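Why show two proteins at once? Because comparison is the fastest way to build intuition. When a single record is shown, students tend to memorize it. When two are placed side by side, the eye starts asking what differs. So, the first record is below.
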Amino acid sequence: MKLTFLYHSTYLLEINKYKLIIDPFFYDKKLLYNNIISKYINNKINYILLTHAHYDHVDDVNFFYKKNPDILLISNYEISSFFEKKGIKTYGINYGSFIEFPFGLLKYVIAIHSSSFLNGTYGGNPGGFLLHTKEKNIYLSGDTSVTYDMKLIPKYGKIDLSVLSIGGTYTMGVEDAIIASELLKCDNILGVHYNTFENIKIDKKKSIEMFYNNGKRLILLNTGESINI
């Protein structure tokens, strides 16, 4: 399994022959045609996963749909219904059981946040995703504060990588993300949702040191950088 960071909370998961784009948003639309990014998104993408309805997680859904008309969008019921009305094929889920997809087992899990589209349309319950594959298991937090529900996540199986928002203000900051990693019993953390806007700026070096001092590894990727999970 391969993860490539693209921008903000947007990243690409490659699981065998399947490609999943998570929360597509590019503040500067020129980035969509940047050579570093375009080489990853110009090829066929099979799935879009959306954690909630805020614009900085859904703004470029239409871009990927136009390039991949048979793409399947997976999100909560309300978000799925919103995009289904725009002609996109969707699979609506909610907090509940694992659901089997060709790429693995997917479970929509609780996030403590809010969820609405820019026009005010209700975006359902915000969430994250727990993804189990034959290779590895990963947790995608979405935008959330730290919550004791995270303690349930490792009960379903060991987490090899947790993707956590760390910018603060709207989500967990670094300190909370460290607590989250302890609840998740996960030592490998990919940080997202930071430095895009002024009020979610972090000190990258200090943040890495803070995780290290707590026995954790914080991974901060540049655009186009990848890790194998």
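Second record. Ask yourself what differs from the first in the token line.
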Amino acid sequence: MTSPLLARPGAVAAAGPDAGVALHYGDPVHEQRALARGEAVVDLSHLGVVTVTGPDRISWLNTLSSQLLLGLEPGASTELLLLDVHGHVEHAPAVVDDGETTWLVTEAADAEPLAAFLDKMRFMLRVEVARRDDVAVLGTAAGGWTALAGHPAHLLTWLDPWPRTAPGSTHYGPPDADHPGAEVPRGLSLVRRDALADVAAAGGRLAGTWAWEALRVAAWRPRLAREVDDRAIPHELDWLRTAVHLSKGCYRGQETVARVVNLGRPPRRLVMLHLDGSEHVLPEPGAEVLAGEKVVGHLTSVVRHEELGPAALALVKRSVAVDAPLRAGGIAAAQEVIVGPEGVTDARPAERPGAGLRRRDLRP
């Protein structure tokens, strides 16, 4: 659905997975600066909201997902992944519970598939799943969500856990203290859709998804609608750090998660690309990444950041050298490592599982 805030003077409509809201309102650089200071609000009302109610909701979601949800306190923010049997990412909602309802925030195109999947997995449990088209989402950063919290139409806020490595998780990228994602925390506030414009006014100036995405890419934060394709596994995106608990019970795709952690070497790795800004044009997401004449990956997200300039996230083959000169969509690109080519974490066993076994040890 199209947001009423697109009628504001200067609004330029976004496209792709952000269709329906504004890309910017005429001044994307200053919008990004205001957002990073906590003085702006982003219309993300195109995002999907799904709720789960009923006394079994937490334990049920725990059995389905990659995340340990048992003991989730009201108001606490987390995220989960729903994987297929091969460990590929299918859904990746933000999660916050208010004590009676679990709220899931996801991509616009994923809301219906997510709700349908959950609904068919209910069986005889005491849970109810619903799409919440009466609820909209506003994005803020750097504490800007506090300005929205006092509004009577504000329901609750999810605070992005990225990039803090959760207990029971691990990371393929840098330690939390060295991670650029720690510089500008972000939040998603759920509000009554009929009061969207009124609540947004409480958050300061309006900023578009141009600014929101620029902060996300600078934080190396994966997004379902951009970084995930039909063969993406969470290790490639460094998504274990906030969305996967390595010691919880069984869930679909767990075998792949455990195998890649134990053996290492995920087939691809997420990188940050600094693009040559002298071309005055940007490649599109999906453009091929080349090392010499060889295709080694593809762009997933492309932004103009007010400090970094043209930048992108890309998935490339694990074997690509970290100092290899690359071209993305015909534009020269310098690589910044996110997931290292060695593809190992501190959760990997010192010795490969089963390495001590010999054929004779298996004989009766």
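One difference worth noting in the second protein: The chain has nine helices and 20 strands.
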